[in-house]
Amino acid sequence: MTCEVQYGGKITDALDRELMNCYTALWINDNCLAPNYNFMASVTDFVYQIPDAQEHPKYMEYIAEMPGSDNPPIFGLHPNADLTFSLKDSLGMINTMLDTQPKDGGGGGGLSREDTVKEKIEKELLPQLPADINPLDTIEKLRALKGPKGLGESGKYDLIPLNIFLSQEL
Asked: How far apart are CA 7 and CA 20, in angstroms?
């Protein structure tokens, strides 16, 4: 029920659904109801278990002892998953810091980073672009081409495979 109903609207990818089913089979099963059952005790320093207590304060004490972040092996992931997450997180932070920096050079009258890039594109890259293709002229030029021997004469634009290919590419 947890996988199919609760997360059914949130997980739409078949592989993500399969992964969620695996996690649920690992974490939610009949063994969880046994006293002092340990969740993945062999791969973590902290013992994840349901406390054998009836009082609310005992549960709160146990929750307070839990680590602030979990290690990837508790979820069946390789320890490098934490490294990958940390790298992605730090790159996101650095990019946010760069994006929030002032855009001016501070010298008054200087161009912002965006204006500098725009100016460079206008002056250097745009002149290098070829002229726009006129589709009608191109089709007329392709119609004038002769195809390979035996495939027909010029003017048979639709019968020459190379002309069809060239027109599609253009």
From this structure: 9
Instruction: Please report the DSSP string for 53-112 in residue order.
Output: -SSHHHHHHHHHHS-SS--GGGGT--THHHHHHHHHHHHHHHHHHHHHS-SS-SSSSPPP
Q: Which two tokens stand for residue 104?
A: 């001016």
The set of residues, in sequence order, having a beta carbon less than 8 Å from that of 155 and lying 6+ positions away, is 143, 144
Phi, psi dihedrals of residue 39, rounded to the nearest 5°: -90, 110
Instruction: Tell me the per-residue pLDDT of 9-35, one tens digit each, with 9 for 90 and over.
Output: 667 777 888 888 888 887 788 888 887
β-bridge partners, 49: 38
90-136 confidence digits (pLDDT tens): 999 888 888 887 765 555 557 778 888 888 888 888 888 888 888 88
Looking at residue 152, its pLDDT comes to: 57
- Quote the CA–CA distance of 164 and 168 in Å, as a whole number: 6
Phi–psi pair at 47, nearest 5 degrees: -90, 105
Residue 136: its H or E element: helix 135-144
Integer Cα distance of 90 and 85 in angstroms: 9
Residue 168 pLDDT greater than 80, yes or no: no
